């Protein structure tokens, strides 16, 4: 699908406690990109229907609506995304084995996320004002190399922190320290090994098959198409299964980090939607929400 000259644009401002007011992004409608948008909607819905899922993906209904202003945000409020890097399967199939409640298990390596969530609740109950709202997930990176050898080192954990674009690498002796560290605003004052994450962009696709087969199916379809041109990871539950495929784009622009959340991603639209996002235009019909830091 060719992206034509953009026409109508709706300004939208993203705020955070550190975001500069001048940082403005714009919404556009798929109608301004593809003149055959009615045919596109039909093709997308046929694509979802032909997957023959027992619990079908909700059809796209807003492409042909009169209003192209994006719906309200459907993403959680968070200040840091903590992602446990899952390296338990060299064949990159660990995501297919994630339990439905992967973040609530005590099993290695997933138990660290449970510890982080428990520490977050503890700090909030104590009234610690600097405790951050933290989003936790498991991620299996498909085509992104990660430094830090872990063979023959026992139980080693790696946490990718966004918007810091850093990886914490540690063993069981540091679990308590790390659980508190990632819930606080600053992560620099620590003895825990910190590795760089040498990417300026990362796409996260919900691939939590045992939580919902819709995301399991769509993640495979999307990953096959996207990993040629994008650094990509399959991530545990990020909500909105009925709107699968769900994709989060993280990208760095100078001193800013942006996260854009999309729904109804499929091979027919994903390239164009992501291309526009890189240029600062969010296609409203596929938008779920956003967050920015700077």
Description:
The chain is an alpha+beta fold. It folds into two domains: 137 residues, Glutaredoxin; 109 residues, no CATH class. Helix content is 21%, strand content 26%. It is built from six helices and 13 strands. The strands form two sheets. Strands 7-6-5-3-4-9-8-10-11-13 form a ten-stranded mixed beta sheet. It has a three-stranded mixed beta sheet with strand order 1-2-12. Helix 3 crosses helix 4. It is globular and about 55 Å long. It starts with 8 loop residues before the first strand and ends with a strand. InterPro entries: Aim32/Apd1-like (IPR009737).
Which helices and strands occur, and which strands form pairs?
Layout: E1 9-13, E2 24-28, H1 30-33, H2 37-50, E3 80-85, H3 111-125, E4 134-141, E5 156-162, E6 166-171, H4 175-181, E7 193-196, E8 201-206, H5 213-226, E9 232-235, E10 247-253, E11 256-262, H6 270-278, E12 281-283, E13 287-293
Parallel strand pairs: 2-12, 3-4, 8-9
Antiparallel strand pairs: 1-2, 3-5, 4-9, 5-6, 6-7, 8-10, 10-11, 11-13
Helix pairs in contact: 3-4
Family: Belongs to the AIM32 family.
Pfam family, one: Suc_Fer-like
Protein name: Altered inheritance of mitochondria protein 32
Summary tags:
ten-stranded mixed β-sheet; three-stranded mixed β-sheet; globular; disordered N terminus; Glutaredoxin; 6 helices; alpha+beta; 294 residues; 21% helix
What is the CATH first-level class name of the largest domain? Alpha Beta
What does the overall shape look like? globular
- What are the secondary-structure elements, in order, as H or E? EEHHEHEEEHEEHEEEHEE
**Total individual domains:** 2
Intertermini distance:
33 Å
Largest sheet: 10 strands, mixed
Question: How many beta strands in the DSSP annotation?
Answer: 13
Mean pLDDT level: 85
CATH architecture descriptor name of the largest domain: 3-Layer(aba) Sandwich
Radius of gyration: 19 Å
Helical run tally = 6
Helix/strand-derived category reads: alpha+beta
In CATH, the homologous superfamily of the largest domain goes by the name Glutaredoxin
CATH topology of the largest domain: Glutaredoxin
Per DSSP, what share of the residues sits in E-state strands of 2 or more residues?
25-35%
Approximate helicity band:
10-25%
- Biggest sheet strand order reads 7-6-5-3-4-9-8-10-11-13
């Amino acid at each position: 699908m060719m992206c034509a000259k953009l026409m109508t644009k709706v300004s939208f401002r993203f705020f955070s406690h550190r975001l500069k007011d001048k940082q403005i992004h714009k919404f556009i409608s798929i109608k301004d990109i593809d003149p055959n948008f009615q045919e596109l909607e039909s093709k997308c819905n046929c694509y979802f229907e032909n997957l023959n899922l027992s619990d079908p993906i909700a059809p796209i209904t807003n492409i042909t609506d009169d209003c192209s202003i994006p719906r309200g945000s459907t993403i959680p409020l968070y200040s840091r995304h903590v992602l446990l890097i899952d390296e338990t399967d060299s064949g990159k199939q660990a995501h297919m084995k994630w339990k439905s409640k992967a973040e609530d298990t005590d099993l290695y390596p997933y138990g660290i996320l449970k510890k982080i969530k428990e520490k977050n609740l503890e700090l909030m109950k104590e009234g610690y004002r600097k405790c951050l709202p933290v989003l936790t997930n498991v991620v299996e990176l498909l085509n992104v190399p990660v430094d830090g050898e872990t063979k023959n080192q026992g139980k080693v954990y790696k946490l990718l922190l966004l918007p810091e674009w850093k990886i914490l690498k540690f063993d069981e002796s540091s679990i308590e320290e790390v659980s508190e560290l990632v819930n606080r605003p600053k992560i620099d004052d620590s003895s825990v090994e910190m590795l760089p994450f040498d990417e300026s962009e990362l796409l996260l696709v919900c691939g939590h098959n045992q939580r919902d087969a819709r995301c399991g199916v769509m993640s495979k379809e999307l990953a096959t198409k996207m990993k040629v041109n994008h650094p990509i990871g399959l991530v545990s539950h990020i909500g909105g299964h009925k709107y699968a495929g769900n994709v989060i784009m993280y990208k760095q622009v100078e001193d800013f980090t942006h996260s854009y959340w999309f729904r109804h991603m499929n091979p027919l639209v994903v390239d164009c939607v992501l291309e526009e996002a890189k240029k600062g235009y969010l296609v409203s019909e596929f938008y779920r929400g956003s967050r920015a830091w700077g």
